[in-house]
């Protein structure tokens, strides 16, 4: 239970450590990993402190220095806690944490790119309002507006804006001319802008 409480502090934003050089572990890392896996909060905390600086270095280089990188570094250790039972030591723990950090940052960057594609596509009528809308609120509004489109229009919007496929590939996947992709996208844009300007 103590270990779970420690992770809750991580996820809740109440950081359990300051950013300082990691401690010199008194025993082999394998021993601390095994103790942490069994629920030893001190062992888990020492692992976090030991690896925080290099993990934060990765997230800061991926996302830029600041609170976002710090929050993502905290999330890396939440994921470590959740996956300790599956960690088999085939790679070093440092390598394992770096992989988690890079994957989480890539997912976040892709999410931002999708959001920006939406805002750019929807145009200034929605962009100004969307800038002041929390990401969760905008995502909910976009999803609802998307569901109100016809299935054909929705397929074009999903492939072009959510998945990021170019017009040619979208047309090939749907078996329609490229001009039809463009016209369906234009009609979908008009309908979605009308709905979003009412909701946001």
Automatic annotation (TrEMBL):
The RNA polymerase sigma factor 70 region 4 type domain, residue ranges: 140-191
Entry keyword Lipid biosynthesis: no
Keyword annotations from UniProtKB, A to Z: DNA-binding, Sigma factor, Transcription, Transcription regulation
Annotated SUPFAM superfamilies: Sigma2 domain of RNA polymerase sigma factors, Sigma3 and sigma4 domains of RNA polymerase sigma factors
GO terms, biological process: DNA-templated transcription initiation
Domain of life, per lineage: Bacteria
Residue ranges occupied by any RNA polymerase sigma-70 region domain in the UniProt entry: 47-115
UniProt-recorded Gene Ontology molecular function terms: DNA binding; sigma factor activity
Statement: the UniProt record of this protein carries the keyword Transcription regulation: yes
Family of this protein: Belongs to the sigma-70 factor family. ECF subfamily.
Protein name: RNA polymerase sigma factor
Species of provenance: Phaeodactylibacter luteus
